[in-house]
Amino acid sequence: MKKHLALLLGVLIPAVSLIPVSQRPAPLKVVTSIFPLREFAKEIAGDRAEVSLLLPPGAGVHTWQPRASDILRLSAADLFIQVGAGLEPWIHGLLKSISSPKLRVLAVADSIPLEEHQDEEAGKKESDPHVWLDFGLDMVIADLIAAELTEIDPSSTLFFQAGAARLKERLRKLDASYSQGLGRCASKALVVGGHAAFGYLAKRYGLEQLSLSGLSPDAEALPSRLMSAIVWGKEHKVRAVFTEANVSSQMAMVLAKELQAEVLTLHPGGNLSKKEWESGRSFFDLMEENLVNLKRGLACE
Question: Which end of the chain is more exposed for a tag (fewer CB within 10 A), N or C?
């Protein structure tokens, strides 16, 4: 199968490249709400699109507020790609302020079965929007993006399909690394000293996520939740407490001290810090580093 895929790409990519540059339409303008969607769109669209990220480095996707320049940039775009499912609470107001007849909007969560998370503080279930942390769902997202780009630029259909195939092959390899790396671990307890961002990852690889707060990074960790985590962590002989990259959590440190556990970092991947952006970090870089820390914290063979 992989040989056939490689042969197919070897035929498709040169073929679409034979079209004279002067006859190709101008690159599409694509804007994404979060970093992983930018990475995926760039891989798929290549030089057929200018892909930009709406969020500036260091901004939180839940709390960021668009500026006038962002409205102008989106008004000039051909395609806006968002997650949806409540991840970007500012999106409704932003799109209402734009009256561009050519702008297409793709909310990837609309085409994905979402996991439900029990919000203990609110006493209700919420849809988990962190779909990009399931690499199988990322392959679905790749096809969604390629299909949307094809609707806008049908002449580049083969090019976009080839780009999506390349991306999906990289995701398959990443998924295989996680499956192998997390297949034999002393612990399956994924204790997160922050918000519940890793539910999809945990489910895909047979882990059990316990977080100190809910789906939103702005949700406060309740003292009762901390006490429950201490009891649960001792029962499960937790070896590590995972904190989110670029986020400090006093309660996570308290939990780690109570459990005599190591503190390790996991990156949710939704956005980069300014330093990470300037150093050219990729989504795959972040996920590979997450795997290293997961294997260490869960004592995997």
Answer: N
Instruction: Give CA–CA dist 154/148, Å, rounded.
Output: 10
Q: State which amino acid sits at residue 189.
A: A
- For 226-230, the CB contacts below 8 A with 24+ separation are 226/251, 226/254, 226/255, 229/191, 229/255, 230/255, 230/258, 230/259
> SS3 for 134?
coil
Strands 240-244 and 262-266: parallel
125's CB contacts (< 8 A; 6+ apart) are: 116, 117, 118, 119
| Same structural domain, 197 and 138 | no
Query: Structural domain of residue 258, as residue ranges?
Result: 185-297
The rounded distance, in Å, linking the Cα atoms of 161 and 15 is 13
pLDDT, one tens digit per residue, over 8-65 is 555 555 544 555 555 667 999 999 999 999 999 999 999 999 999 999 999 999 889 9
Are 19 and 139 members of one domain? Answer: yes
